[in-house]
Amino acid sequence: SIRYYELIIPILYTMVKNDIALEINTAGLHQPCGETYPSMDIIEKYYELGGRLFTFGSDAHHKEELGRDYEVFVSILNRFGIKEIPTFTNQKYELVSIKK
User: Fold this and answer.
1) 4-37, pLDDT tens digit by residue?
2) Does the CA dihedral 100-41-64-89 come out positive or negative?
3) For residue 36, which of 61, 55, 12, 64 has the smallest C-alpha distance?
4) What is the pTM of this model?
5) CA distances (Å), 47 to each of 30, 33, 36, 68, 92, in order?
């Protein structure tokens, strides 16, 4: 179950309604929590509410960390059948195929 459900669900709903992408950040995999930010239950709820726009983050602080665990991001999207991710220019997005 989602912690702080009553706060998070309206935010996710607003994101979906306004075509706002949810970032899946893999940095948490290397932290004590051992999971992505946000956690899978929130990712699943965003998808359940109709969210289909996901972006990738890895919180790279060193060049060797850039893109770390991208394959985890892709595997999460594969679970939902997502084949494209948005790229943004001037606050508008276009979908591009996921690079594996």
Assistant:
1) 989 999 999 999 999 999 999 999 999 999 999 9
2) positive
3) 55
4) 0.91
5) 24, 22, 15, 23, 21
